[in-house]
């Protein structure tokens, strides 16, 4: 019960910075289309030898491993300090993927020792559309250098200079904030709370006007995707409140179906067109 309680306490604290582990780091992942095979995205990593953790975590671990120190721990102000953890091994958990896409590590289970390299592959057929935030969460084992605090109030307890953590530490090597957009060609939203889209003519032989009726001014980020999810055209334009006409030149595109995605002030809408 004490071990479980400590795990819950540690997981409630934010850990400090970490060494760069993942490549690419948190960024936009390739977009996909609902119901179509997602071209596998590989995320490589090397487990660093050290990570930086909060002094609050160290305080909780000390109180558990050396309960005789609990009466004085509150006077050390450990919560405002940080400590280096020597990483023994870490396990990965990927959260936030759309239904139908899985994350597969090159090792089973997805656990790696310090200094080891590996990769995670995202693949499958997405069953839901929308914008998803994908986080790689970690659970790391290791020990902490506590030599800087073993003197003073703790000098009489005969503590070692390093502390083997009694439970794995969450979040010390996390990489959060990957994004993935999955479009649904059969259920395209042309309107949101901020603006609406219309395209004339549609279908198009190459030259069309994209009408954007917006309640806020801002920068319209426009991207055109093939039905397979490949980005084939991009253009940015400033829009004012009210009706805006943006000329699109799609002459260079091959015949077929395309998705036009617009993002204004964080709001996204899509409209489908066919190039004749």
Write a concise keyword list for the protein shown above.
mainly beta; Immunoglobulin-like; 3 helices; 9% helix; disordered N terminus
What this model shows, in words?
The chain is mostly beta strands and 276 residues long. It has two domains: 2-180, no CATH class; 195-275, Immunoglobulin-like, CATH 2.60.40. The chain contains three helices and 19 strands. Strands 2, 4, 5, 7, 9, 10, 11 and 12 form an eight-stranded mixed beta sheet that branches. It has a four-stranded antiparallel beta sheet with strand order 1-3-8-6, with no helix packed on it. The chain has a four-stranded antiparallel beta sheet with strand order 16-15-18-19, with no helix packed on it. A hairpin with a 2-residue loop joins strand 18 (256-264) and strand 19 (267-275). Helix 1 runs antiparallel to helix 2 (55-65). The longest helix is centred in the N-terminal third of the chain and has 11 residues, at 55-65. The protein is elongated. 28% of the residues are buried.
């Amino acid at each position: 019960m004490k071990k479980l309680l400590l795990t819950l306490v540690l997981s409630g604290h934010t850990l400090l910075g970490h060494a760069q582990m993942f490549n690419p780091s948190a960024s936009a992942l390739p977009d996909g289309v609902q119901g179509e095979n997602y071209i596998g995205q590989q995320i490589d990593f090397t487990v660093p030898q050290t990570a930086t953790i909060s002094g609050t975590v160290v305080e909780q671990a000390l109180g558990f491993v050396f309960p005789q120190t609990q009466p004085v721990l509150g006077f050390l102000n450990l919560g405002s300090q940080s400590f280096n953890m020597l990483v023994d091994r870490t396990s990965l958990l990927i959260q936030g993927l759309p239904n139908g896409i899985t994350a597969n590590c090159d090792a089973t289970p997805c656990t790696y020792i310090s200094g080891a390299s590996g990769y995670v592959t995202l693949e499958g057929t997405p069953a839901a559309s929308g914008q998803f935030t994908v986080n790689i969460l970690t659970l790391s084992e290791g020990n902490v250098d506590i030599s800087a605090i073993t003197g003073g109030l703790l000098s009489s307890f005969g503590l070692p200079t390093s502390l083997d953590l009694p439970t794995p530490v969450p979040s010390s090597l996390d990489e959060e904030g990957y994004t993935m957009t999955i479009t649904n060609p059969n259920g395209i939203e042309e309107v949101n709370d901020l603006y609406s889209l219309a395209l004339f003519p549609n279908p198009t032989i190459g030259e069309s006007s994209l009408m954007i009726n917006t309640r806020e001014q801002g920068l319209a980020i426009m991207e055109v995707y093939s039905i397979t999810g490949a980005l084939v055209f991009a253009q940015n334009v400033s829009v004012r409140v009210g009706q805006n006409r943006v000329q699109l030149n799609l002459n260079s595109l091959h015949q077929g179906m395309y998705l036009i995605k617009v993002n204004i002030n964080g709001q996204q809408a899509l409209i489908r067109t066919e190039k004749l």
